[in-house]
């Protein structure tokens, strides 16, 4: 699911955030985070060796799951033909390491990100090297930065505040300023300068600064058009499949290049005018210029491409799906079928139909990937805003006035704004009011370069079904000048306010929240409901940002679990117990495990709040706690996993295969790691029966999925 962020970064709007290691619930982004273009640190592991065995500081960048990259190799991906998912190196050869078969290479510059809208296209510069492809166009080649992993380095392992990495939920950056194990490209571990030979670009069908016509054949990971010029690939922001465009070539590599859109010669029938007035500047949304029906088709195809390319899984009707991915703007089977008329409709996959999907999967007929479940009104859906505060640009390097908004694409320049079309209106009003009050009271904005100033972020949370509002002021210090006046103004001007909190974060970091939170006025929580379950939401609680689609998502998970009231269920990565409490309504007993203790405290409180007693929560890593439960005699009939973007830990997958539940339900916010993990489970004796994409984050490139798996011998 999409709670894969860990307070990391000021993506005030957008994708998914994480639970577990993701406490703030920042969304699409809330991003396994992407690595910012231009960073050059090679990934290492906490122990000082890359997971693949590359020594900390060596040129070999170990892959996340340890498959193939050896120490001392530079692992430069040679970018295969888009759509193949190959990295150009033979499996197992030096430098060919992949992230468990995802095609993502160690040492890639600007690995695929999960955008939280408002953060500059998920952290990768628009048109930068390394906006990895997910939807069958292959991962962009020769990227030069990979995540570091190590204690105290933030979720993606890079030291908070260092240059070069954007995280999943925000933009914690790391890279050249990274600590142990971080080595600049072009240097050996001993510090000797290594000269990288210039790539031979002779013989390419295009030249830098040349104006050429390109045919757009697909959509890239960050919403850019994938163009072809005499077989050569160009990535073009703003272009759509099916279009013919005039572009200017900006940058070239051996296998691909980047170009600027100059003119649309033939427009896609799916092209629309983006309603947001700053869409071309803000990186929060990537697909507003694509009709919503076409967005839903694209997201289904994204899932299909990854299942086939990475998971090597057969998809029912795949021939039609693949042909549709070549020119999605020209139509595809099931076009508008993905749009649901309301949040609760189209959820059930009942009896005979589901049995048919199971028979098809087992008989080799392929996995059923259903049309994406969309929203009847795909606007104003976010219940939380996380807005970075800074200074407007001024002459002679002086600080301008206080501003707050979203980051321009690929930068930390804040675009001041008071309205976001995917944000709930009350959150917009809260942020605009607090900015105005801070200016009037002389409260200084935080300057991330000098580490001076006070107000870093304004966070607003809204209960869709209760109307409760919480304001969190994230500050660079404990003392707020004229605090009582500020609190009084907020109470006076914001109807529905229930809680005003201060979070103190004095670290040099782009992680949003610090460790200390105190209540300035009101309660320490607000409340909201999903279905029949009531949740208490604190300042840093993970809570899904799109409550309407969350109910759809959880309804699918319940259907795939197939509960009758007699089952024992384990919920791995349970967070604050959202899915666990839904499952407990239909199961005999539910066990939830989560590595973040604060989330488990929230889960237990939510269970008490709803009077649910057949659920037990434990703090710890799922791959550690679940085997302990097994030794205690707990034998699950169903295991539900809802991991962050990086997917399931390999040890957890091994544990699932050892415990052999009858069914596995996988909730995913990352189609590539989903496909990787499904391949492991399929090889271990399970079959993937059905996949249901759910559009949790309209107008972004992100998609959630619920997957039902069955043990073959049941």
TrEMBL record:
Chain positions covered by the region annotation Disordered: 1-183
Keywords on record: Methyltransferase, S-adenosyl-L-methionine, Transferase
EC code(s) of this entry: 2.1.1.189
Pfam families in UniProt: TRAM (PF01938), tRNA_U5-meth_tr (PF05958)
Matching PROSITE patterns: SAM_MT_RNA_M5U, TRAM, TRMA_1, TRMA_2
Residues that, per the record, bind S-adenosyl-L-methionine: 544, 573, 594, 642
Coiled-coil residues: none
A Gene Ontology BP annotation from the UniProt entry: methylation
Stated family: Belongs to the class I-like SAM-binding methyltransferase superfamily. RNA M5U methyltransferase family.
Protein name according to UniProt: 23S rRNA (Uracil-C(5))-methyltransferase RlmCD
């Amino acid at each position: 699911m999409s709670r894969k962020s860990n307070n990391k970064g000021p993506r005030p709007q957008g994708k998914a955030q994480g639970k577990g290691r993701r406490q703030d619930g920042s969304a699409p982004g809330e991003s396994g985070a992407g690595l910012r273009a231009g960073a050059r640190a090679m990934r290492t592991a906490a122990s000082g060796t890359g997971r693949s065995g590359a020594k900390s500081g060596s040129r070999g960048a170990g892959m996340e799951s340890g498959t193939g990259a050896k120490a001392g190799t530079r692992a430069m991906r040679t970018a295969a033909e888009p759509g193949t998912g190959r990295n150009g190196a033979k499996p197992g050869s030096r430098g060919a390491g992949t992230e468990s078969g995802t095609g993502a290479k160690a040492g890639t510059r600007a690995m695929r990100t999960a955008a939280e809208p408002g953060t500059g296209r998920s952290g990768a510069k628009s048109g930068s090297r390394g906006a990895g492809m997910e939807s069958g166009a292959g991962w962009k080649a020769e990227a030069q930065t990979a995540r570091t992993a190590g204690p105290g380095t933030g979720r993606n392992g890079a030291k908070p505040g260092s240059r070069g990495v954007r995280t999943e939920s925000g933009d914690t950056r790391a890279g050249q300023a990274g600590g142990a194990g971080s080595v600049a490209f072009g240097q050996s571990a001993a510090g000797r300068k290594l000269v990288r030979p210039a790539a031979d670009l002779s013989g390419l069908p295009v030249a830098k600064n040349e104006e050429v016509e390109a045919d757009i054949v697909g959509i890239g990971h960050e919403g850019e058009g994938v163009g072809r010029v005499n077989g050569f690939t160009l990535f073009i922001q703003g272009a759509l499949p099916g279009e013919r465009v005039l572009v200017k070539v900006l940058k070239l590599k051996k296998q691909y290049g980047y170009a600027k859109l100059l003119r649309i010669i033939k427009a896609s029938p799916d092209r629309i005018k983006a309603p947001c007035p700053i869409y071309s500047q803000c990186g929060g949304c990537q697909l507003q210029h694509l009709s919503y029906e076409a967005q839903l088709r694209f997201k289904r195809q994204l899932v299909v491409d990854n299942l086939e390319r990475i998971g090597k899984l057969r998809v029912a009707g795949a021939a039609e799906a693949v042909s549709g991915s070549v020119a999605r703007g020209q139509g595809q089977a099931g076009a508008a079928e993905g749009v649901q008329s309301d949040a609760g409709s189209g959820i059930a996959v009942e009896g005979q139909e589901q049995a048919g999907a199971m028979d098809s999967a087992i008989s080799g007929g392929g996995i059923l990937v259903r049309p994406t479940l969309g929203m009847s009104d795909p606007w104003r859906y976010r219940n939380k805003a996380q807005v970075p505060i800074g200074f407007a640009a001024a002459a002679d390097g002086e600080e301008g006035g206080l501003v707050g908004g979203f980051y321009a694409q690929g930068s930390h320049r804040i675009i001041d704004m008071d309205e976001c079309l995917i944000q709930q209106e009350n959150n917009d009003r809260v942020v605009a009011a607090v900015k105005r009050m801070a200016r009037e009271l002389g409260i200084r904005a935080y300057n991330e370069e000098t580490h001076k100033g006070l107000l870093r972020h304004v966070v607003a949370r809204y209960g869709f079904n209760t109307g409760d509002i919480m304001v969190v002021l994230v500050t660079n210090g404990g003392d707020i000048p004229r605090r009582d006046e500020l609190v009084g103004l907020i109470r006076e001007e914001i109807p529905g306010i229930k809680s005003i909190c201060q979070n103190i974060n004095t670290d040099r970091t782009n992680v949003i929240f610090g460790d200390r939170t105190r209540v300035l006025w009101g309660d320490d929580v607000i409340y909201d409901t999903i279905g029949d379950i009531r949740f208490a939401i604190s300042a840093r609680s993970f809570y899904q940002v799109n409550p309407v689609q969350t109910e759809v998502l959880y309804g699918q998970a319940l259907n795939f679990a197939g509960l009758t009231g007699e089952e024992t269920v384990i919920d791995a990565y349970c967070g604050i117990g959202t899915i666990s409490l839904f499952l407990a309504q239909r199961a005999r007993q539910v066990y939830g495990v989560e590595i973040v203790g604060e989330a488990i405290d929230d889960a237990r409180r939510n269970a008490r709040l709803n009077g649910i007693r057949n659920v037990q929560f434990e703090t710890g890593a799922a791959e550690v706690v679940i085997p302990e439960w097994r030794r205690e005699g707990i034998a699950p009939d169903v295991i539900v996993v809802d991991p962050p973007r990086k997917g399931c830990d390999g040890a957890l997958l091994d544990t699932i295969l050892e415990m052999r539940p009858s069914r596995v339900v996988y909730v995913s916010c990352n189609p590539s790691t989903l496909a990787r993990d499904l391949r492991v489970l399929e090889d271990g004796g399970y079959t993937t029966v059905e996949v249901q994409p759910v559009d949790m984050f309209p107008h972004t490139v992100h998609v959630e999925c619920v997957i039902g798996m069955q043990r073959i011998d049941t």
